Amino acid sequence: MSSQRGVFVTGTDTGIGKTLVSAILCRAWNATYWKPLQTGLADEDGDTPTVRDLAGLEPSRIVPPAYAFQAPLAPLAAGDLENVTVNPGRLVLPQVSEPLVVEGAGGLMVPVREDMMIADLIGRLALPVVLVTRSGLGTINHTLLSLEALRRRAIPVLGVVPVGPPNPGNERDVARFGKTPILFRIPQLDAITETVVSELSGHVPSLDVLQQQISQ
């Protein structure tokens, strides 16, 4: 595992809540945030300012994306539209003194370049994963497939974060068959604010404790 303390936040789908979970982790661990591959800037400001505002991060605790593309597509497709090929040499962990929260783009099998998926990037960065999942129907299949893909690459998983209305049955089966803990839960939210992020951050386990558990 990397000497840099931190995690890679990925999900079982796009638009699932990775950015919210990243903000909560940054707030809980007083971490620095990095989204190496940002797409979709034609439609929105991107995830970096969202996390900065929700987690109340100082500018010094934000690392700018290595690549920022306009189209709301996978990095490979968005880069093709701009005649840009992602150079893996730019996708190296920034050395920071605080824990680092790295947010991926979409799910594990999203193409970054012809010979690299997000899952391969996670393996290169050598950080353990926090997997964000839906709480409802279909999540067991998607979550177990994602966990299997991570384990096949020998990538350690700190745990799963379900997002949405409580579903104890799904949580039980994900934990049991996926052999991974539920780290914390994010309920259905009427609004996502800095206050909500601060409150949810109080339910996050310590990073040191989580890293000790996977190293045992």
From TrEMBL:
Subcellular location: Cytoplasm
Keywords: ATP-binding, Biotin biosynthesis, Cytoplasm, Ligase, Magnesium, Metal-binding, Nucleotide-binding
Assembly notes: Homodimer.
Annotated protein name in UniProt: ATP-dependent dethiobiotin synthetase BioD
Cofactor: Mg(2+)
Gene responsible for this protein: bioD
Enzyme category, top tier: ligase
Predominant localisation class: cytoplasm
Organism (species): Gluconobacter cerevisiae
Alphabetized CDD domains for the sequence: DTBS (cd03109)
Organism superkingdom: Bacteria
Chain sites annotated for binding ATP: 15-20, 47, 103-106, 187-189
Annotated family: Belongs to the dethiobiotin synthetase family.
PANTHER family reported in the protein's UniProt record: DETHIOBIOTIN SYNTHETASE
Function according to Swiss-Prot or TrEMBL: Catalyzes a mechanistically unusual reaction, the ATP-dependent insertion of CO2 between the N7 and N8 nitrogen atoms of 7,8-diaminopelargonic acid (DAPA, also called 7,8-diammoniononanoate) to form a ureido ring.
Binding site for substrate: 39
Cleaved signal peptide residues: none
